[in-house]
Write a structure and sequence with these properties.
- With 579 residues, the chain is α/β, with parallel strands linked by helices.
- The protein has two domains: 12-330, Up-down Bundle (ABC transporter transmembrane region fold); 346-578, Rossmann fold.
- 64% of the residues lie in helices and 10% in strands.
- The strands form two sheets. It has a six-stranded mixed β-sheet with strand order 6-7-8-4-9-10, sandwiched between helices. A four-stranded mixed β-sheet has the order 1-5-2-3, with helices on one face.
- Helix 3 runs parallel beside helix 8 and helix 9 runs antiparallel to helix 12.
Length: 579
């Protein structure tokens, strides 16, 4: 990625794309504020002309003993406009514009994160882009401000050069040439710096993660028990220094080139100043010419800064635009089976038979992985069935569930994902809301039905009051897992998927859940993913995974009858351990 961004043409195209996207967002968010902003920028652009002309008239009037008021009025106007613009532009107008952008963008971003393909969340390259979303939001008004400042400073510089032309064309030409090195250097440095910044995102993420390990609540107990704070601190220091080293190296190279550009520009500026001083004009013209020369060079310095800012914020805005394209319409959320065709993927319409979900000849590989997680898998789930998936860690059970739920798209084969399902996944959500809201999220349209939520909580043995806030009073690990189970039940979906549902439960609670397993399946299809083969005995059918393949299926008794099969070996190992 960084290699591409450090080349001129791709970076120019990316910057332009990002700026156009930011402009579109800003215009839609607050067109009236943008119009007011544009008027202020135009006024600030023209202000130097009034200031320079006023200075010229004022000095000429004083030397000729004429009235100074016309010149004073122009000077006052030239000084007042930028002061007023900075107060308004970076005051009420700027703050209001930032608020409008936030209100416009954040709901859209939340929708995109909720609807983007699951594979994007598994892809490290996509994660780099997702980590920059917050910078993209900030880039909207910063990119607009930077572009506006760029236009303003270009206009001011041209105004100063235009005035200088009236004093001495040769001085104006020297000054114009003096501005070029600084601007070109800043543009090249901006492109290079953006490439370095993007290349350091993985290291920055690691440093942030390591910092969070020692400052977050989730690992606080293990930090103290194992005493690994010093190790994590040293790892953070190594990652942080790697980022710093890359940035310092780029800053040193840019600073060296900057010295050369500044020396060249200063020499040309002095030549222009000499031309102005040798010019046979009045005192006002000479003084105003020197002032115009200094103003043009100052604008060049500001201009070089805004060029770098435009490149960086344009890149952030372009990244956000690309991430927003990953989203899908919200109406697709309750129906994850509606997939579109793509090369190597066949998604069939739902057949009329009583099939809840099916995979036929499906293969799937995670982004960046060297081997498929699922290989040529054919699996069918039928209405009312109690199905157990078993196998060693990494055998492909959870990936198969994600394919059956429509969270992942197969690389090859045919997938008919579930129409609607309630899930309690292995890595479930822990929402710092009330207990009732944690359960009610399973079916948001019934969030107001608190009596039904309370019944569901009681059904899974939750001893929490529905309105208890879980952010300040976090429950135990077992209570969090019961909340996840209750959320799945609250969904009312005909298919219930339980991925290691008893991992954090005590033995008695685990036994009660498995006793209720048959009851849960009375009006539902239940899929249980588990390492505990004792739980699989309650299933109508057991499927055994090994290295991404389905290697056995049948009832508990039938699989035990195959004494040389993997299920019988696992059962013997677990039974022996329990004894």
């Amino acid at each position: 990625m960084s290699a591409q961004l450090t080349s001129g043409a791709p970076q120019r195209g990316r910057t332009v794309h990002g700026l156009l996207f930011a402009l579109g967002v800003v215009l839609r968010a607050a067109p009236s504020l943008v119009a007011a902003d544009a008027l202020i920028i135009v006024a600030e652009t023209l202000a130097p002309l009034a200031l320079l002309q006023g200075t010229r008239q004022l000095l000429d009037a004083l030397s000729a003993r004429n009235s100074p008021w016309p010149g004073l009025v122009l000077v006052a106007i030239g000084e007042a406009i930028p002061a007023f613009g900075s107060r308004v532009l970076y005051g009420p107008v700027g703050q209001a514009l930032t608020r409008r952008i936030e209100v416009t963008l954040r709901p859209r971003i939340m929708t995109v994160f909720a609807t983007m393909p699951w594979a994007k969340l598994e892809d490290p390259t996509a994660r780099d882009r997702l980590d920059r979303v917050e910078a993209g939001i900030l880039a909207m008004d910063v990119a607009w401000d930077s572009a506006g400042a760029l236009v303003r400073d270009v206009g001011r510089g041209l105004s100063a050069l235009g005035f200088l032309w009236t004093v001495s064309p040769w001085a104006a030409l020297c000054a114009a040439v003096a501005l070029v090195p600084a601007i070109l250097l800043r543009r090249a440095a901006g492109v290079e710096w953006e490439g370095v910044r993007l290349s350091q995102i993985p290291a920055q993420r690691l440093a942030g993660y390591l910092f969070g390990l020692l400052t977050g609540r989730g690992t606080a107990a293990e930090v103290r028990v194992f005493g690994y704070a010093a190790y994590i601190r040293d790892r953070w220091r190594t990652a942080f220094r790697a980022v710093q080293a890359a940035e310092i190296a780029e800053q040193g190279r840019t600073a060296l080139l900057g010295q050369v550009a500044e020396a060249t520009g200063t020499a040309l500026l002095l030549a222009a100043a000499a031309v102005v001083l040798l010019h046979q004009g009045g005192a006002g013209a000479t003084a105003a010419g020197i002032w115009a020369l200094m103003s043009a060079f100052q604008q060049a310095g500001d201009l070089s800064y805004w060029v770098g800012s435009v490149i960086q914020e344009g890149s952030n805005a372009a990244n956000l635009a690309e991430v927003l394209d990953w989203g899908q319409p919200m109406r697709s959320l309750p129906r994850p089976h509606r997939l579109t065709r793509s090369p190597g993927l066949c998604v069939s319409p739902r057949p009329a038979a009583m099939v809840k979900a099916s995979l036929r000849g499906v293969t799937f590989t995670y982004p960046g992985a060297s081997a498929p997680a699922i290989r040529d898998l054919t699996l069918e789930i039928r209405t009312g069935e109690r199905l157990a998936m078993v196998g060693r860690n990494g055998s492909g059970k959870t990936t198969a569930i994600k394919l059956l739920l429509g969270l992942l798209r197969p690389d090859a084969g045919e997938a008919t994902p579930a129409l609607r399902a309630g899930v309690a996944l292995q890595h479930f959500g822990r929402y710092e809301l009330t207990a009732a809201e944690n359960v009610g999220l399973g079916r948001p349209s019934y969030m107001h039905a608190r009596s039904r939520i309370a019944e569901t909580m009681a059904r899974v043995g939750l001893g929490l009051t529905p309105e208890r806030p879980l952010g300040r009073q976090p429950p135990s690990g077992g209570q969090w897992q019961r909340l996840a189970l209750a959320r799945a039940l609250q969904s009312g979906a005909p298919l219930l998927v339980l991925d290691e549902p008893t991992a954090a439960l005590d033995p008695l609670a685990e036994a009660r859940l498995y006793e209720d397993f048959a009851k849960l399946a009375v009006s539902r299809t239940v899929v249980l993913v588990t390492h505990r083969l004792a739980a699989a005995r309650f299933a109508d059918r057991i499927v055994v995974f090994e290295d991404g393949r389905l290697v056995q299926q049948g009832t508990h008794e039938a699989l035990l009858g195959d004494g040389d099969g993997p299920y019988a070996h696992m059962w013997a190992a677990q039974s022996g351990w329990a004894q």
